[in-house]
Write a structure and sequence with these properties.
Length: 213
């Protein structure tokens, strides 16, 4: 599990106050690699979300296992947002449509904007992340830098802004799967200060344009 390796701590030891992010495993040729337990000490919280997953349906590899199974493997991860024990979204007969994935991506962005944290790492599959980028990018943006396909193991840094100051229902426009975004005054000032501080250095942050600014 890549995010555990990136954000996780050292090897978990018996007696720690927090359960491990990932339990130890003995290698099974062709299936499981040998690994030690990973500690959750001094790590950010890990939260599992049903919306943040690959295209659903038909392919068995896109069907998740039970929450109980994952909780045994990753006792330090918060699975409280998972509403069903088994995967009730996956079906053998029907593959999820693009409009359905885009709607799911928008719902996930809305959830992200409701979180109290200021820095959040989203880890998912390329197809879903690609749809999230399309939700965020304005359709009249000729650059289209956000919605480019993801390279293997690629990471992107985004600043999400809500021009209304406090997050509320997304206003319905001609495209119901588009998140309008926008900047608060405080965020504009912060970005301007950051740009001045890093003037002449390669940009490492992409953000949304506000069409109403």
């Amino acid at each position: 599990m890549a995010p555990v390796g990136i954000f996780g701590g050292a090897t978990w030891t018996e007696g720690e106050a927090s359960p491990p992010l990932m339990v130890a495993a003995t290698a099974v040729p062709g299936k499981v690699s040998n690994r030690e337990s990973v500690s959750a000490l001094n790590c950010p919280p890990f939260v599992a979300h049903e919306l943040c997953r690959e295209i659903i349906g038909v392919n068995p590899c896109d069907k998740r296992r039970t929450v109980t199974h994952y909780a045994r493997q990753h006792p330090g991860i918060d699975f409280s947002l998972m509403e069903t024990e088994a995967d009730c979204c996956w079906t053998r007969e029907e593959r999820e449509s693009l409009p359905a994935i885009m709607g799911r991506a928008l719902s996930f962005v809305e959830w992200l904007m409701s979180r109290p944290e200021q820095h959040i790492a989203v880890v998912s599959h390329c197809e879903f992340l690609h749809c999230v980028m399309n939700v965020l990018e304005h359709r009249d943006d000729h650059n289209r830098s956000l919605s480019k396909w993801f390279a293997n193991c690629e990471m992107r840094t985004l600043v999400l802004g809500d021009g209304r100051g406090t997050y509320g229902p997304v206003p319905q426009g001609p495209d119901p799967t588009h998140f309008p975004g926008g900047f608060t005054v405080a965020l504009q000032e912060e970005l301007a200060q950051d740009a001045a501080l890093h003037k002449g250095q390669p940009a490492d942050v992409a953000w949304m344009n506000n069409p109403d600014a």
